[in-house]
Amino acid sequence: MADYDFDVLVIGSGPGGYVAAIRAAQLGLKTGCVESRETLGGTCLNVGCIPSKAMLHASEFYDHAANGMMAKMGIKVTPELDLDTMHGQRKDAVKQLTGGIEFLFKKNKVEWIKGHAAFTAADTVQVGDRSVRAKNIVIATGSSVTPLPGVEIDQKVVVDSTGALELPKVPEQMVVIGGGVIGLELGSVWRRLGAKVTVVEFLDQILPGFDGEVRKESNKILKKQGLEFKLSTKVTGVTVKGDKATLTVEPAAGGAAETIEADTVLVSIGRKPNTDGLALDKAGLGTNQRGQIEIDHDFRTSVPGIWAIGDVVPGPMLAHKAEDEGIAVAENIAGQHGIVNHDVIPSVVYTWPEIAGVGLTEEAAKERGEVKVGKFPMLANSRAKTNHEPDGFVKVIADAKTDRVLGVWCIASVAGTMIAQAAQAMEFGATSEDIAYTCHAHPTHSEAIKEAAMAVTGKPIHV
Length: 463
Known about the structure:
Low-confidence stretches: none
CATH class of the largest domain: Alpha Beta
Largest sheet: 7 strands, mixed
Distance between the termini: 66 Å
CATH architecture of the largest domain: 3-Layer(bba) Sandwich
CATH topology of the largest domain: FAD/NAD(P)-binding domain
Strand content: 15-25%
Mean pLDDT: 97
Number of helices: 15
Structural class: alpha/beta
Number of domains: 3
Shape: globular
Helix content: 25-40%
C-alpha cells in the first residue's frame, strides 16, 4: 500500500460514484472520491432527479387546486402561486440530501478530493496541484446535456434541464425540444403553473424506448391536460431577440417550414457521457462511437485497475442503474461477486399520472417469440376510482409457453412505486400466475398489477 494513496479512487460523486465510494469503504478499502462541484450527489441530486421531483410534486398540488380536482372532493380553494417559495423548498430538498452524502462520506471515512481529475498514467490522476495514485480507479463521471447543433443555451431564453428548474417566472409560451422523459416532466411542471407548452419531437411518438401502447396512451393523457405535441417534426433553427425566441420547425420527412414563438425554449434531446478533460488516452483508454467507455460484465475497462460505471458506460442513463453498478463494482474490487441484472432495470416518468415499465416492451418481446399479454384499466381499480385517478392501465407481458413475466408497463398515479413489485417478481423469475395468486391488499393501486397478471390467462375479475 505504501506506493498508493488509495485502494480505490472514484472519479465523480453522482449516484454511481458516491455509492461505489461508500460501499468500497464499508468493505475495508481506503477510498477517495474526486468531485468538482461544490456539493456531492452529481446531476441527480443537484440539478436532476431530486429538484425536478420537488417541482413536480409542488406543481401537482397547485394544479389539483386550479383545475377543479380539489373542488370535486369538496375542497374549495383559489390557489395563488408563490414561485419563490416553491423554488425554496426545491433548494432545501437538494441541500439536505447533498449534505447527507457529505455526512455519509465522513462517517465511512471516504476522503473527498475537490477538483477535476485527469489521468497522467493508468494508476494516477492529477487533481489541481495534487497527484493521486490508486490501486483501483473507478470512472463514474456521469453525463451532461446533449447540445442541439447551432442552438446556443443561454439559460435565460434557451435553457437546458438545469435552467428549466430555475425559471424566475412562469413563461407564457414554452417550447420543449424532445419528447423524452426530461422534456415531459419539466414541460408538465410549467404547464401546471400556467404556461402554454408545445413539445416538438422528431420521432412519430413521445417516450422513445417505452412500450408502444404506453407511448400512445401517455400522449393522449398529456394532450388532454393541455400539452400540445408536434410529432415527426424537426427544429431547424432557433433565433433569440431580447427575451423572446423564434423556432423554425418542419416535418421530419421534409415539407413546408413554420415558426413558433416562445418565451422559453427547453432543449432536452438527450444526454452524452462525460469524458472530456479526463485525458483517457494517458491511461491507455478510449471511447466507443457513442462516447461511452466499454466495460466487461464485472465493470472492468480494457486497462487493468480501471473500472467504469453509470452514464459513462453503455446502458440506460438512470440513477438507480448507476447505484446498483456502484455497489457491484466495489464488491468486485474487494474480491466479492457484484452483479447487476441489466434485464430488470425499471424506468419511470414522473408526470401525472406516472408512467413506468420494466423488462421488455410488447414489441421487443414479440420479436423473441410468442407472448401472452394481460391488461387492466385503472378505471376499474377501486382505489384509483375513489382518488379520481381514472387514467392509465397495467400491462403484463409473459412468455406464451413458460408464462414467465418478460415485461410490465403501467400508467397510474403511483406507477413508479408499483413497478418495484414487478421488478422484484421478475428478479425471482416469476410467472404471471405467481403474481396473480399473490394476495394484494385492498383497496390499493397495486391490485391492478394482480388483475393484469390474471388477464394474461384471460381471467381478470373486475373487468
